[in-house]
Specification:
The protein has about 230 residues and is an alpha+beta fold. The chain has eight helices and four strands. β1, α1 and β2 form a beta-alpha-beta unit.
């Protein structure tokens, strides 16, 4: 059987390493024990027509498995989880709840985190940033408080580790260095448990080793608008 092919960048700025969206896809493949290959894209080439034929928004990752072509990391991880074993429970109700947590990670939790990232990193020099940043930070704090309350003292969000936990851990990792996750010891421990999984370590190591390219000449490329949302 020919292994699936995913796309990833061959270079990103230091702050984005370990956060680009091919990571959860790699992690899912590692958890399910499926080999894969990677087609690396130099920065800028993701916007060219050849890649847009696979990913209409000019982002990464994509996933190719025979005649099947997918984009959006959440959709890819869900497909991998449904095609293999170890990421979704067999029983219908727990399975539905695991998928529910995937959606929660990418919507209820990640949307305010993404807004915070834009405000604190890319828009911090804007004249309105000083007033806006506390507002978006408060939204993140509210979401993390809700999530910490729901997690409580549990190891994972709903029973055993699932694709829902995989996506949630990847989402929370976007806040590294902000101190926001660390304000909730249960969430910090939750993320650490995810990062301690051998499959995560293999995925992260593989991603890091793939950064062998050169930065683009245009500083505008550093805005990193090429990963999926």
């Amino acid at each position: 059987m020919t292994p699936p092919v995913i796309t990833a960048y061959d270079w990103v700025p230091d702050f984005a390493r370990g956060l680009v969206r091919d990571l959860p896809v790699r992690w899912a493949l590692e958890e399910t024990g499926r080999p894969y290959t990677v087609r690396y894209l130099p920065q800028g080439s993701q916007k060219e027509s050849a890649h847009r034929a696979l990913q209409p928004f000019g982002q990464v990752p994509t996933y190719e498995d025979g005649d099947l072509v997918l984009f959006e990391s959440g959709a890819i991880v869900l497909h991998i989880a449904e095609s293999g074993s170890g990421l979704l429970p067999a029983d219908p109700a727990p399975r539905a709840r695991a998928i529910q947590w995937m959606f929660a990670a990418l919507n209820s939790v990640e949307l305010p985190i993404a807004d915070f990232g834009m405000a604190s990193l890319f828009e911090r020099d804007m004249p309105w940033a000083k007033d806006r940043l506390p507002v978006v930070r408060a939204r993140v704090q509210d979401r993390l408080g809700d999530l910490a309350t729901r997690l409580g003292e549990a190891t994972w969000l709903d029973g055993d580790f699932s694709a829902g936990d995989l996506m949630m851990v990847c989402t929370l990792r976007q806040l590294r260095g902000s101190g926001l996750v660390e304000a909730h010891p249960a969430l910090a421990a939750y993320v650490a448990r995810g990062e301690a999984r051998p499959a995560f370590g293999r995925a992260l190591d593989a991603q890091q080793k793939g950064f062998t390219g050169q930065p683009p000449q245009s500083a505008a490329m550093l805005a990193m608008q090429g990963e999926d949302a």
